[in-house]
Prior knowledge:
By secondary structure, the protein is α/β, with parallel strands linked by helices. Helix content is 33%, strand content 19%. The chain contains 18 helices and 24 strands. The strands form six sheets. The chain has an eight-stranded mixed beta sheet. It is globular, with a radius of gyration of 23 Å. The relative contact order is 0.13.
Amino acid sequence: MWILGVNAPPTGWHDTSACLVNGDGDIVAFSEEERINRRRHSLYRKPVNAARFCLEQAGISASDIDVVAVGWDGEQLYPRRFADDADFLAHAVGLDFGARTPEVVRVPHHQAHAASAFHASPFPKAGVLVIDGHGENESSSIWTYEEGAPPRRERSWQRTASLGYAYDAASTWLGFSFLNAGKTMGLAAYGRAAGLEVEQLVDVRGDDFRLAVEPLAENTGRATAEEIKEQYETVVGRWRERYTAIAGTDAPSLPEGRLAEDPKAVLVAYTAQRVIEETVTHLAALTRKAAGVEELCLSGGVALNCSTNGTLPGPLYVPPVPHDAGVALGAAWTVRPPRRRAGALSPYLGSDIHASGPAGRGEPVDTSGLTATDLDIDHVTELLLGGAVGAVAQGRAEVGPRALCHRSIIAVPDTAGVNTRVNTIKNREQWRPFAGVTRPAYGARLWERQEHLSLYMLGAARATELGRAVAPGVVHVDGTTRPQVLHGDEAPAVGAVLDALEDRGAPPVLLNTSFNDRGEPIVDTARDAVAAFRSMDLDFLVLGDRLYRKADGPGGAR
């Protein structure tokens, strides 16, 4: 049996994706469409290339698919839009399924999020908290999941009582897209560092919460996408009015690159961040109480808020794909949960660096003008200790928005100045932070311990005195970092460099950030990696088992 899970339009109109699981619930392949079509967030684009990649990995054709599982109830949101399932699949996926139309299973959005978190976790039973902008009829929901038992939804909150809406409003007030909420989170840290006192915009009491912007009357269970869009715009507009009243102005006074110097911009970002932190802390406790266990999973777009995740007590698990791309996996797993679970999910489920076909696009890699040698970890380590900034592209790509050392830019973070250089290389605002990667034993000395969040770089942790001393390039203004820990050989080149640093008596920690230029998705194939290497001021590129350097120009061979 083959189940193709998708996040696809018209319901899933951003972060479209495809995931293929077999009859045992094993993941064969998983990719976000943006990695292949090279369009950030793949807005309004069907995941046809991601789906083709999945089929290619399994060695099957679209006619072999038994079920297409969709992470939304499109029948509610777009009633009578499609004549039948074949019409829907042509619009949403774009594959030619042949004479036999596969069964279409529409999984409610929050259930798909919840399934993607629990079944990826190492827990046999857990409370699952889903928080995002909205599903079909809710913005937050609490679930109990247990192996061998059907999931149980414990309770939910209406769409317009949305923490996601509150954060979207702050992000757009600051001049960002709602898809750039990570920038808002990074800016909020300047408010925490300054010890700002902010207005309380959430009342947390008993077993509920009340936001400062009251939710609207809703057509629960029957609201269409158009109704939901109108309500979203109304509620976000009211939140923006509230932030304007707090700041005394309706926009920042400084450009994006200098927002950390704008006290009112920092105030708005930190005010929104505190709403998230206070409410999620309360909802996490309610989730544990409802499930009757301490094990907790988070999913939904708000689960990408690393600063909040880092404040929650464990045991806590957030999957590598908590955002909307992850419902492709959750929908497929709702149809066929995994029969075998062996710890937390490996995120390395995407394209191989030397892939051909849909992912590799069948195009040769032009390495003219570059010098190439066999990969020598000692040489790479020497370059890094000498101040070089390089990129690594090896193995299968990570799923999710965090680069986890298969498609990463790396540097030694022994000075704050490396932060400036890497932000310049990536054409990012200088106030934005970076993350660190190390081995478990050394990580325990550098920052607060995280059992599961550091698998995928999804939780902020306070740096120790040693961490601040040896790795200032990955410590943010509020004294935290967003660590990743490599336990074995899951990222061969970076793991080997960490071990080589330790052998040389140097701190075995690296700055790790995504290998992409401003406005681009993370690189996927060798061709993407070489193109990005050429366009960015990087000193070297580890591509598979080869080391490339530029013969001329900035970052050239020296």
